[in-house]
Amino acid sequence: MNEKDKNTNPQRLFFDEHQWATIEAAMARIIPSDDTAGAGEAGAIRFLDRYLSGLDYIYARPDGSGFQVLHGKRANSWQQRLEVLRQRYREGVQEMDRRSRGLFGAEFHLLTPEQQDRVLSGIEKPEVEAVAGSEQAATGFTPSTPAAMQQYETETDLDFFQMLVLHTRQGFYADPIYGGNQNHVGWQVIGFSGPSSLAEAHAGRHKTLPFFADAGTGTEEGSNG
Predict the structure, then answer these.
(1) Angle at Cα 41 formed by Cα 93 and Cα 206, nearest 5°?
(2) Has this prediction a pTM greater than 0.85?
């Protein structure tokens, strides 16, 4: 992203205007807005844009006062990791547009939600695209990739689509200090009030125990056993 683009669009740190619009649209189909807020309302794209911008938004300080400054080998390792992710997103946007133009004659962010679902289904499951006339392809996109739910050593182990799903979820549920989950909408969807800030959690003033299922004593109430 060049300095002119940054100056005219101060919210963006890494993505250019087209990349931002494309990834934002895809995120909005992964966690869509219906009767509750989706990735768009949560600002998941801002989370990802900040993350990819460099080393300034990697680790938030526990007291919520900002972000840690990385040095030496740790900084170099993260820089290499980010370069892999950046390139994967550049190529991913190009692939989404290529498929979109091939199927519908327009770039991805200009498609209808139903058309976008079709493109994402083809990226997630190429075999669906091969039978585009089938009921499975016509029903649209269901973001159900198990791999994006698993714990990998780093995101660089994921392909583009799985990585996008992972980052969308992170932008929806992570602490707002990282740029997403604006107004705590992600937490509200799952009934979690959350701390007002990382400082509150760090100081021990926010308790999460009420949000855990009661393990009980191993016996049912009234049981003689």
Answers:
(1) 120
(2) no
